[in-house]
Amino acid sequence: MNHARLTVGVALVLAASAEVLAADPPAPTAKVEKPAPTPTKSSVRAPLNLQVGDIRKYMMPNEYRAAIDATDADKADIVVQGEREAPPLKSMQPIPGGIATPFWMLAHPLKAWRALLPDPNAPPPGPPDVVPQREFRWGP
């Protein structure tokens, strides 16, 4: 029993010393300030170009004509339609099962914890619903 307490005590002392070493800021060093570099042609960037260009490349002719002929209130409104499908989560990607799992864990050590949790892609536990649920009605 004393051996276990000694091991835990040594581990705690090592952890505390690691925290103290990590918390100490590095010693300040004397910095020599260099003069600011003068801009050269290669280091000066061109201003950011945010122009769309020819709008007819992005619109069908009938849509372009409708936008030109629209009233001023319609020209000021911007309408975006559609929904973007969310990308698949990395935690939902399947992992191999059975005998291949330990090898997968060795090949992907940062994702190995996923093999120890229930698979989110697995069917729910229990027997499948072979018989459909009865529909309840008050009348015939």
Shape: flat
Total DSSP E strands: 0
Strand content: under 5%
The major β-sheet equals: none
Written account of the structure:
There is one protein chain. By secondary structure, this protein is mainly alpha-helical. The protein has a domain at 51-75. Helices cover 31% and strands 0% of the residues. It has four helices and no strands. The longest helix is centred in the first third of the chain and has 22 residues, at 2-23. The N and C termini lie far apart (75 Å).
From the structure above, extract its key features:
140 residues, flat, 31% helix, mainly alpha, single chain
In short:
The chain is mainly α.
What's the helix and strand layout?
Elements: H1 2-23, H2 61-69, H3 72-76, H4 101-107
